[in-house]
Amino acid sequence: MNSAPENARQTATPRPRPGGRTARIRTQVLDAVHAELTEHGYDALTIDTVAARAGVHRATVYRRWRDVGGLIADVFAAAADIDWEPLDSGSLRGDLAALNEEIQASLTEQPSIAAALIAVSFRSEEAARALRQLWESRYAQCEIVVERAVRRGEIPADTDARAVLIAATAPLYHQLVLLRTPADPGLPDRIADSAARGAAAGAFTQQDSTDAS
Amino acid sequence: MNSAPENARQTATPRPRPGGRTARIRTQVLDAVHAELTEHGYDALTIDTVAARAGVHRATVYRRWRDVGGLIADVFAAAADIDWEPLDSGSLRGDLAALNEEIQASLTEQPSIAAALIAVSFRSEEAARALRQLWESRYAQCEIVVERAVRRGEIPADTDARAVLIAATAPLYHQLVLLRTPADPGLPDRIADSAARGAAAGAFTQQDSTDAS
What we know:
Chain A is mainly alpha-helical. Helices cover 63% and strands 0% of the residues of chain A. At the A-B interface, helix 7, helix 8 and helix 9 of A face helix 7, helix 8, helix 9 and helix 10 of B.
C-alpha cells in the first residue's frame, strides 16, 4: 500500500481536487488525523483533538465525519483516490522493484502514515475493511505490470498477476511491518528479482493453483 | 510463527515441563491469558481478570508476572520454548508446504492465539520485541529445510536460507494477517512451489544481495 501523496513516482498532474472551502476543510481535517495517528496513535484519536489540531469547528467535524470511524474511513478513501500508476521500466523485475521501493519508502518514512494505518487495522474492523479495499484497488492498478511482462514474452501468458504481485511485495511487508527489521536498501530489488524469476519459471501460472497437491 | 502447542506436526515427545505447583500455576495463568486475549483482546487484559479466570490468587500473579507486559512476555517465552522441528518430506517444496500448512492452521484456527499475538504486537513495544524474537528463533529452526535442499543438490550451495524462508511464508501472513483474505487451501503449497522454484533458479543466492542494482 502506498498512501503517500507526495510520492515521487506519482503521475505529474494530480487529479484536481473539488475546490473551495469544503475541500480545504477536508484536507485540514485529514492532515490532522494523520498527525494525531502518527504522533499519539489510535487510542488518543478523538473528534475534539482532530478539530482543534485542524483549526476547524468541532461541530463541523461531528456533522461531516460523525465519529473516529468516519475519520479513519475517509483517510482510507482519500488514499485510494490518489491518481497513481506503476512505473513502466521495461522489465518485470524493474517494475516490481520500483513498486517495492515505493512501498519501502512509504513504510519507513518518519512518520509513516502507511504503517500507522496498518496498525489501526488491528484496532478497528472498519479500518481493517477499508485497508483491504485500498490494497485491493492498489493490486488491481498494478496488474498492468504483469500484463506488460506477458506481452513482452517474459513470463507465461496464463500467469496469475495477483499471485506475482503478492509474492513480490509480501516479504517487504513481512520484514518491515511484522518482523519490524530495519529497512534493507537491497531488499526491494532482491525480492522483485526472485518473484520475476519465479514467474518466468512458470511458478505463478493459473493452472498451478488447480494441480497443486 | 506457529505457537499452537497442540499442533499435529510437533515432535511426538514434548519436552517435559519442570513439574510441580509452580509449573501448574504458570500453565493455568498462560492459558487464561490466551483465553482473555482471543475473547476480549488486549485492551481488556488485566492481572485481575487473568487471575480470576486462572483460579489463581491475584497476589501470586502480581508477584510472578508484575503486570500485563510480564504476562505477554511469558506467553511469547512459552511459545518459543515448544519443542518443534520442521517436517523432512524429502523435497524443498514439500518441506516449505508443510511449514505453510502449519502457519495457515495456526492463523485460522478459532480462536487463533497466533493472530491475537500479532495484533498485540501493534499495541505494545514489549510484545513487538518478543514476537520478533519468537520469529527469529522459528526461522533459525527452519534453516535446516534449506540446508537439506542444498545437500540434495536441489538449490545452489550459497542460497540465503532466511531469504527463501521469508519468500515462502510471507505471502501467507500477508494474505491472512494483513489483507485478511479467507484461507485458501491451495495457497500453502503454491507459494512453497514458487519459492522452491525461485531458489532452484538461483534467485536467493547470497551474492544476489550484493550485485543487486
